[in-house]
Amino acid sequence: MDAPGIVVMGGSGRMGRMLCDLILTSDDMHLAGVTEAPGHAWAGQDLGTATGGAPNGVPVTDDPISVVARAQAVIDFTTPAATVAMADLCAQVGTVHVIGTTGLSADDIAALDRAAQTATIIRAGNMSLGVNLLTQLVRQVAASLDDYYDIEVIEAHHRHKVDAPSGTALMLGEAAAEGRGVSLDDVSDRGRDGITGARERGAIGFHAIRGGDIVGEHDVVFAADGERIVLRHVASDRSVFARGALKAALWGQGKPPGSYDMLDVLGMR
Questions:
Q1: Are strands 188-189 and 204-210 parallel, antiparallel or unpaired?
Q2: Mind listing the pLDDT tens digit for each residue in 218-230?
Q3: Which of 114, 215, 221, 253 has a CA between 20 and 30 Å from the CA of residue 97?
Q4: Over residues 29-33, mean pLDDT
Q5: Which of 97, 157, 207, 247 is catalytic?
Q6: Is 61 assigned a ligand-binding role in the annotation?
Q7: Active-site entry in 30, 40, 97, 161
């Protein structure tokens, strides 16, 4: 069987470039194409030329239909609008869609769920093995402790990140809420400023730090009188997310349509 062809959305970005580099050096897959936004300087060029090297035969296009139709998977760390549009395209042509995009609204997620009726969609707020293990631990600890323990999620990222809380922070908050048997929407506390009054019992708080080149740090704190439990994950290299996405793209081959996440990919459920 031929190595599956992968399309990388937003190939000029930091994650896009890393994905392209990993695929180009892989024996398990090949880079079928790269997409960019209409009008982008790379559009219409060969990827090798666009990156300042020799041509490598990989097209960069702002019209993804042609490359996606010939590929077996699309990896997407872009924007909510672009992700929803790509999900519809993948559903039409039967290409696996691996989504690491964050900042998705409830309407965006509903649109992805509709696309998953006919497409194989693998979506995760974070694609690293460590974070997904952390999610399981957070769910377990939250289920073991009552709401006498206050839960706070603290996340830190580089100065260029545009959404907050991060997708990983929300994933961890969801795990804590599931452990307690409540809806995160009902207990989420995302902002404190001024005279806010005492902390509401049972709330799950979120705090975002932005600065420098921080790749990603997440702490989940369970705080009670006299003790604290802190669960932490630190990513020091963005490649952990890229490698997880590539693992998901390979895992998705031959899977039936539906919505999957990294716990499915890692065999953790």
A1: parallel
A2: 999 999 999 999 9
A3: 215
A4: 96
A5: 157
A6: no
A7: 161
pLDDT at 126: 86
53 annotated as belonging to a binding site for a ligand: no
**Residue 63 domain boundaries:** 5-123+238-265
Single-letter code of the amino acid located at 266: L
Q: Can you tell me which residue has the tokens 């580099």?
A: 21
Pair (185, 242) in one structural domain: no
For residue 115, pLDDT over 70 is answered with yes
User: pLDDT at residue 246 above 90?
Assistant: yes
Distance CA 99, CA 265 (A): 13
117 and 242 fall within a common domain: yes
168 labelled binding-site residue: yes
| Claim to verify: residue 90 and residue 216 sit in the same structural domain | no
Give the pLDDT band of residue 238 (cuts 50, 70, 90). Answer: confident
Residue 34 is part of a domain; what is its CATH number?
A: 3.40.50.720
* pLDDT (average), residues 132-148: 96
| Confidence label for 66 from pLDDT (cuts 50, 70 and 90) | confident
Distance CA 101, CA 1 (A): 30
Give the gyration radius of the chain's Cα atoms: 20
> Does the pLDDT at position 1 exceed 60?
no
Please say whether the beta carbons of 62 and 39 come within 8 A. yes
Residues 11 and 108 placed together within one structural domain of the fold: yes
The pLDDT of residue 107 is above 80: yes
Same domain, 144 and 227: yes
260 lies in the same domain as 181: no
Whether 145 and 89 share a structural domain = no
**16 annotated as ligand-binding:** no
Does residue 151 sit in the same domain as residue 106? no
> Is 202 labelled a binding residue?
no
Instruction: Report yes or no: 120 and 252 within 8 Å, Cβ to Cβ.
Output: yes
